[in-house]
Amino acid sequence: MKTLDSIPTGKIQRASKLISTGAKVGINYLKYNVEKTVGNADTAKLNLDKSNAEDIYDSLKDLKGSALKVAQMLSMEKSMLPKAYVDKFSLSQFSVPPLSSALVLKTFRKYFGKTPNQIYDTFDLNSVNAASIGQVHKATLNHKKLAVKIQYPGVAQSISSDLAMVKPVAMKMFNIKGKGSDKYFKEVEDKLIEETNYILEVAQSLEISKACKDIPHLRFPNYYPDLSTDRIITMDWMNGVHLSEYDIENASDKIRTQIGQAFWDFYMYQIHVLKKVHADPHPGNFLISKDDELIALDFGCMKQIPDDFYVPYFELADPKNIDDIAIFKEKLYELEILTENDTPEELVFFTELFHELLSLFTQPFHVENFDFSDDAFFGKIADLGERFNNDSQLKKMNGNRGSKHFIYMNRTFFGVYNLMHDLKAKNIKINNYKTL
Question: Three-state DSSP class for 291?
Fold first, then answer.
């Protein structure tokens, strides 16, 4: 894979890159219009999605930063995006062009005033993993293997301008209207800014690993504040394979359940006990060790869950509350899904929509044990997502629905559900966290 000697950091540079990509997408649509006229419309649409996904990703992977992070977030929305986009954007989780050796050395001199070899016994200038915000290198110190994460130059400074550029696309994709949309983008911006603060990430990593250390079959690296700065993090090197590369097909049901239970307990313990959650559950943040234990990494994106959101959110996981229309509507108001300004048509439409959605999505919480390998359950979620995406009535409605806290809480649950399904985890104890 090629390395990068520089990353566009100026607003004009980054905007120019996206404008050129927009031109390529425009050409793809011209080709699509010709192809669907003279050939098969379904094949033409698949070719359009593939071409657009490749062109957009090729642009974002060179920009890196929050623009690429948004693609990473979208790759987890398997029920919303066409498969071509999911497949291509998922590469942003741990496989993008790394920084060149010269740029790595320049970063160390800037933040440590030293070269890597003046800090560690050994340091490999070739990265072993590159994602949206940073890349990882191998190092050793005092006979200990270390992983050193380096943030890409200019990432923190370009967040606001990047989000301003992708905002029109995001608003169209999520049916968000202009009025009242700022709170959602501000939530994303604040979280992305936090993710670029590596001092905060180290503190959060130490906090969560200490709080969750007794969860069975779950491991964390040690973190080294003295060898970290606001742009560089040093931690233990953890041996394992990324969750997405783990050979789950040849794993026994016992192993699948063991890994799945550790993953589920990790998230439920954070949500229900700590009221703070690792809101970035994609495969690049988890490894499976040779002993079939789960290793959790990267705590840059942590979501604090306020009580005034937590309480109604999980009260709607109770089927008694879902089936009691008065209580159900009361909780929808508390969660800002329904508002006092809604028309009678909107009240009926969104009450029915969320009743159907929550009746399905909360099913794991209605039982003591749940089978996340159930293709029928996930097929229903995919079908529901596709139906909503194509609902002409929904597109006419104001899509600004729900508390800003939904953005990262829903992202967390969609990610957890999808990874549990990928693990084919069966017989998972839903409330096991209460005994930990």
Answer: coil
Q: Coil, strand, or helix at residue 341?
A: coil
327: how many CB neighbours lie within 10 A of its CB? 16
Among left, alpha and beta (phi > 0; psi -120 to 50; other), residue 154 is: left
Candidates 38, 19, 7, 72; CA nearest to 300 is: 72
- Token pair, residue 190, equals 């604040």
292 secondary structure, DSSP code: S
Would you state the structure tokens that stand for residue 144, as one six-digit string?
Answer: 């200990």
Contact between 74 and 415 (Cβ < 8 Å): no
Q: Is 82 helix (H, G, I), strand (E, B) or coil?
A: coil
Instruction: Tell me the residue type at 60.
Output: L
Q: Which stretches of the chain score pLDDT less than 70?
A: 1-26, 28-30, 32, 34, 57, 59-97, 165-166, 168-179, 395, 398-399
Reduce the DSSP state of residue 220 to 3 states and report it.
coil
Indicate whether this model's pTM tops 0.85: no
Tokens at 246, concatenated:
């783990």
255-287 burial string, b = 16+ CB within 10 Å, else e? bbbbbbbbbbbbbbbbbeebebbbbbbbbbbbb
